[in-house]
Amino acid sequence: MRESTRFTQFLIEELKPKGKILTPFNVISGITILLGAVLIAIRFIFGLSYVTNLNQEYPWGLWVAFDVMAGVAFSGGAYVLCFVVYILNAEKYHAIIRATVLNGLLGYMFYAGALVFDLGRWWNAINPFIGREFGVNSVLFLVAWHFFLYTICLVIEYSPVLCEYLSLKRVRLFVKSITLGTVIFGIWLSTLHQAGIGALLLMAKPNIHPLWFSEFVPVLFFVSSLFAGLSMVIFEGSISKRVFWGRVKVDREHLIRHEEIILSLGKACGIIMFGYVFIRVFDFVHGQHWHYLPTQYGLLYLIENIGFVILPMILFSIGGREKKALYVKIAALLTMIGVIFNRFNYVFLAYKWQIPFSMKYVPTWMEVIVTMSIVFLEIWAFRFCMNRMPVITEIPEWAKIQDQEKKEETVIPLKRKEGKI
């Protein structure tokens, strides 16, 4: 009884605001979230037609383009850095792994969860998981299960932070013991479902403009998720430095390595984007699409690839070589805009490209408000965790002792086996 009372008091204390309530951001985001909640309720009660411009010709809209296609790509930083830290043992990036996993977890929970809003008959959301109507061989079956399983993987990867926050010592030992296996499984899932989202577009070949359609679309979606996720890590880390570093006691490793990590991630983005550009150029030349360049679609294609891929690629390279973090941050922002632009082109413009621009789908203000409310909710959740949990702060002393004891249990028998002690 005493434990439950203490836990209740702890929750009440933690739910209290840590700073000013009536800030411009809180007021604007709070009003937007409330309005978004009302619009979501209207959508579920009366249907999609009351709040969206979706129809039989345009079944995908803003919620799919931004929340799923772009949002999931931005969450890709989690599986990339988990691979680097846990598989390649690059300790330098360990300082940001928790914030990255948190960002990925919230991205999947909010953005992938928002996909339900876009389903006309939302009560049939279970169908892709059980293979009903389309069967277990459909791409949607693959993507649905991978989304679900990878979200569970992210929960497990973030669980040590929750355990340290709630002082769950035994549970922390268990989740730490299964982290490596979870990371390996999660990387496999991410690789497939990032490509799987692009594979959904393969079935719409007659409706997608030749400049954007390619048999390499799944590969392009996977590769773009690599630099999109890393760009989000750079962007999120830069914002966190301004917002949270003065409020919480940041751990020493995070303070020392911040700029070094940003520059290293910038170099990685530049290299990955070079591979992406190579695939796009190869596909363009092989498809003989030169005659499309003088058109409106050709202009959009050039803006997307030159302005938001090649330009940031160059900035990443210069920033990494000259050690100019500002260049890397600008490149990361341009890259994020470019990924959104690319996904929007697929859904809004390249799809049904034979139709005049004046007749194309345009999202309603209500769709925009709902999307903004989801983004603001994710920011609120991210802020809550950053201010209260050991994400970028020092872990509790008992957790350090646990990790040291676990390390000794592993290292000492190994040294005895090798005859070193």
Task: List the keywords.
mainly alpha, globular, 421 residues, Formate dehydrogenase/DMSO reductase fold, single chain
Q: Which CATH architecture is right?
A: Up-down Bundle
Count helical runs.
15
Strand content: under 5%
Cα end-to-end separation: 49 Å
Q: What is the CA-based Rg, rounded? A: 23 Å
Q: How would you describe this structure to a colleague?
A:
The structure is a single chain. By secondary structure, this protein is an all-alpha fold. The protein has one domain: Formate dehydrogenase/DMSO reductase domain (Formate dehydrogenase/DMSO reductase fold, Up-down Bundle), CATH 1.20.1630. The longest helix is centred in the middle third of the chain and has 36 residues.
Could you give the topology of this structure?
Blueprint: H1 2-14, H2 24-46, H3 62-74, H4 77-87, H5 94-112, H6 127-130, H7 139-166, H8 169-177, H9 179-202, H10 217-243, H11 252-287, H12 296-322, H13 325-349, H14 365-388, H15 397-418
Helix pairs in contact: 2-14, 3-5, 3-13, 4-5, 4-9, 4-10, 5-7, 5-14, 7-8, 7-9, 9-10, 10-11, 10-13, 11-12, 11-13, 12-13
Write a brief caption for the model.
By secondary structure, this protein is mainly α.
